[in-house]
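User: Show me sequence and structure for the first protein, then do the same for the second.

Assistant: Starting with the first protein.
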Amino acid sequence: MGGHPWFYFVAYQSDISGALQELRRREFEAGRYNPVLWTPPFPVDVNSPAPGAQHASIEEAMEDADADGTRSILDMERISDTPDYGAVAPLPNEILLDLFGTAKPTREMIEDSDDLFEMLERGQGVYIISYQDDQPSEIYFAGYSYD
């Protein structure tokens, strides 16, 4: 079957872990996860389907999704310094420079990158701080589902 890519932009906050948990809660409450939506639509915006949560908790949704995963940010439970399953990790500056030519990419640079998903493993995610006018603007979370 293969992994399904997922990605989100959220407003920047210095607490990356807090931003991750807020995003997980938002997407759970909207019901944008497998098995409610077999493949949630990306990019997520105000017009995206939001059938509402169909499970009592994120953990219950993850259990129900089984080996496929939720095909969403719900599968990413924590922040890690290095790539790991069930976690999002920052991209090292060397990779940011390779991908974008800068360690402070803009949202447009991130959106235009075709190479980012080629380096991601299933069941893992990354985050990138996007910049506007040389200031942190948004956090980009991206990854692949387990299957």
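Switching to the second protein now.
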Amino acid sequence: VAAATTPARVTGSDVFAVGDSVMLASAVELAAALPGISINAQVSRQASAGLSIVQHLAAARKLRPVVLFALGTNGAFTSRQMRQLIRAVGVYRDLVLVNTYEARPWEAGVNQVIAAAARRYPNVVMANWFATIQHRTSLLWPDEVHPQPSGARLYARMVAAAVRAARSEGAAGP
């Protein structure tokens, strides 16, 4: 398998995405931005549930070359869980972590864990939803968490750009 060296080579068929209702609200746009992507998103999903899904697929050798992990809206995402996720994904895959935007007590902690992993591990890239949406909150529904259709398009473009960045950097090796 040749390593993707240019952004144009990335396809959705390279990507497995696991997320919560924010991803679910953006799933149609995400599928349009990355055709062939496998999306497993569910309302109220916690990071621990997403971690279990990734671990199961990794153990079954069914994990795609890029793992998109977008969980943290519904509760904490701990450093321990992050280490477990990194271990499950392995060094030969890219991990794209989407940080969170919601005014809840765990938001800052989740985003810190994600940013730290992106700085520490060469095969981890952060998709910065917080920075992308914080000055465009009119694109969210009144709950100020879930994207409206125009917000979903923005989410999908941001995620697709992060996936392409991960693959074009060759972060995960050969």
